Amino acid sequence: MAKVKVGVIGCGSIAQNRHLPEYKMNENVELVAVCDVNEERVNSVAQQYGVNAYTNYEELLTSGTVDAVSVCTPNYLHALISIAALNAGIHVLCEKPMATSEEEAQAMIEAAKTNGKKLMIGHNQRFVSSHQKARQLIEDGEIGKVYCFRTAFGHGGPEQWSVDGKESWFFKKEEAFIGAMGDLGVHKSDLLRYLLGEEIVEVGAFVETNAKDFAAVDDNAVCILKTESGIIGTLAASWAYKGNEDNSTIIYGEKAILRLEEHPVYSLVVQYATGEVVNYELGKIQSNDEGGQSNSHVIEQFVHSIVTDEEPAVTGEEGLKSLAVILAALKSSQTKQFTCVHEEQPAEGILQHINS
User: Fold this and answer.
1) What global pTM score does this model have?
2) Which domains are seen in the chain, by residue range?
3) In the chain, helix, strand, coil percent, each to 5?
4) pLDDT for residue 350
């Protein structure tokens, strides 16, 4: 079977530490090209992987050399480049947040459908072993009715690991659109939807910039979320954690409490109401603190969907629903009111608008 020919658009940290090495070690992939507007950077990465270098994504997409691309650019380019790739008959793995609006996200979904190509969003928290085990326990009724939850994702900020440090696009409003909530919060809105098996319908939030005076986007956010069945909880996203990274989630149920990625050794701790405690050692969650490379399982899932012609593990529709929670949080913070989450928007005319 012919290998999937892949190009990576955007050669920043996420591409260098996740996408490129994971494509390289995938036996079904032939890495053929990289693209970045920074000529020095793209040439260096291209030389490292022995692939072709492009500074213009349109040239790559029209080259006829790739079957699929990863879009690892600043957020404001996600929809533009993804739609262009899909329209060129190329499968797309897009980093999160998938877009800067529901309209953009819907246009991406429509482009994938129209062209019969795969669109997957890089929400890797679904593939963490402890999260998958917790979802299974909840589905099996092991903890009974779920009452509430709390989840947090925080670290010292992108300046610690971004290739451009404090000058990174992550801190520029016009390029990032959203800060810690788009970088970290959207991962947790996706995780909660995955774990609980239901949608978040209402959000109240404080989305602030109070830790980094050089940032034009939010660096601290705390949200209150409510699901369709009435489960309530909190989500915190922060670029202001000076100690170790926090990537933990706790689910409080009728029969037990699930503690995820909170213990230094046990990635899942189940505390039953009977007093029994079960510890699961399922491997550590991915962390920016690692400083190295590891397997996020995102690339292997994306490639698998292409090779088997199956639906991607995280579809555009799923990405949109998780994005909608974050957009509702922004609106809530601005209006100082609880906000309903709307995940569906008409796409009529949007493709033409974005392509223009």
Assistant:
1) 0.93
2) 4-124+295-314 (3.40.50.720), 127-288 (3.30.360.10)
3) 40, 25, 35
4) 38
